[in-house]
Design brief:
The chain is built from five helices and two strands. With about 120 residues, it is mainly alpha-helical. It holds the Pfam family HLH.
Length: about 120
């Protein structure tokens, strides 16, 4: 992508401005420089202070308490899911009866078995 000379000059005009002028422009826009964070300076704008609903949700989800509660809920959900698969597995006829099946194998075998039972009832 080629830049026109006019566009390049417009883009570079800020580099030729006095640093004091740039700082005053930032302050008038509501930006102030606060404490450096880990060796770098960060500018905070007053316009950024009210957090959006999404930002509040992101910050809440970042807390250790929230993550721990979420992990507990997920663990309970997965355990219930596995119990349901185990119960379904017990109802399916296979040889040997204690053969370990994957979840997809259990579902496919259940589909076949239900189709077979449906066919038996129709005849």
């Amino acid at each position: 992508m080629m830049l026109s000379p006019d566009q390049a000059e417009a883009d570079l005009s800020w580099t030729q401005a006095d640093p004091e002028t740039l700082l005053n422009g930032l302050k008038s826009a509501g930006c102030t420089s606060d404490e450096p964070a880990e060796g770098e300076e960060r500018a905070k704008c007053k316009a950024d202070q009210p957090l959006s609903r999404e930002e509040k949700r992101r910050r809440r989800r970042a807390t250790a308490k929230y993550r721990s509660a979420h992990a507990t809920r997920e663990r309970i959900r997965v355990e219930a899911f596995n119990v349901a698969f185990a119960e379904l597995r017990k109802l399916l006829p296979t040889l040997p009866p204690d053969k370990k099946l994957s979840k997809i194998e259990i579902l496919r075998l259940a589909i076949c078995y239900i189709s077979y039972l449906n066919h038996v009832l129709d005849v």
